Amino acid sequence: MLAAVPPPVTVRVPSKINLHLSVGDVRDDGYHELTTVFQALSLTDEVTALAGGDSGVEVSGEGARSVPKNEDNLAVRAVRALAEHVGRPERAERVRLVIRKGIPVAGGMAGGSADAAGALLACSILWGLDLHRDELAEVAATLGSDVPFALYGGTALGTGRGEQLVPVLSRHTFHWVLAFDQRGLSTPKVYGELDRLREAGDPPRVGAPEALLEALASGDPHRLAPLLGNDLQAAAISLRPGLRRTLRAGVTAGALAGVVSGSGPTCAFLCSDADSALKVAAELAGAGVCRTVRVAHGPVPGARVHEE
Ligand code: C5P
After folding, report:
1. Which domains does the chain have, with CATH numbers?
2. Cα 53 to Cα 149: distance, rounded to the nearest angstrom
3. How far is the CA of 188 from the centre of ligand 1 (A)?
4. Which of 17, 146, 293, 298 is spaced 20 to 30 A from 156 at the CA atom?
5. Residue 107 is labelled as binding a ligand
6. Model pTM?
7. For the complex shown, is ipTM > 0.95?
8. CA-to-CA separations, 133 to 44, 140, 145, 213, in angstroms, rounded
9. What is the 8-class DSSP label of residue 90?
10. How far is the CA of 31 from the centre of ligand 1 (A)?
């Protein structure tokens, strides 16, 4: 008798922004030591894993054309890594992934990491593995620095290369406007540019996140706004000088503050409430400083099964 093919599993995964990103020294393995505060946002990708057919990956939505459809795709690598982790490498050959993107590609919002986290959770369910999220996070950390956070979501303090996570108290919802740039930025290039800027001089550093963590707990966006900070922002602006204009335009439109998300080039603008975010988004969309504008809120949960 043939084994029944399990039904497809669809997982929804959040994007992230870094409310605080302090970049330390380069380690022996080439990564930089980080202290960062992640927040998961309602801008999401969806990953469906299907068994019983040919392997491969289909991608649609935001930036789909520039997503690799081969082994370079982090979600494809995630399927293989999970199959190997449970000692069944052949399982990866019979999984097809369908990815619907809402998160910009190479935008500094961990879109590729979200897809990898989605693939891990979807396959663990598809294969009937009863794995704890912490075990999935161990596999996730081997794939990329931001993949574990995409599994947990919420708001978290990240250390190491960003993969060591502690949840942060943040019961309140914050409202954001996101400005996508025309093209993405390569994360290694942005880190390299920061190293270059630091060799040439000593660009200001964001310092410790304590005050920001207190502001998060208070839930007051007016307190949080002046504390947003990202050491990679200067490097992203150095590579993409137009971002300075984008950041200014968001504040002129009524945002409380703007910050480059991760390695950029997406800019995230904190707004006082949902209505203000809609107004800022409309004005920013007309300012001609970015390709697309989205509103989002956070924190939201990490990767979770999406029932149709
Ligand atoms: O871990 P991930 O593959 O997302 O990292 C992409 C690149 O970003 C790394 O190859 C490295 O150049 C840079 N990076 C870093 N320090 C970190 C995280 C990323 O230098 N903590």
Report:
1. 9-168 (3.30.230.10), 174-298 (3.30.70.890)
2. 30
3. 6
4. 293
5. yes
6. 0.96
7. yes
8. 19, 10, 16, 25
9. G
10. 6
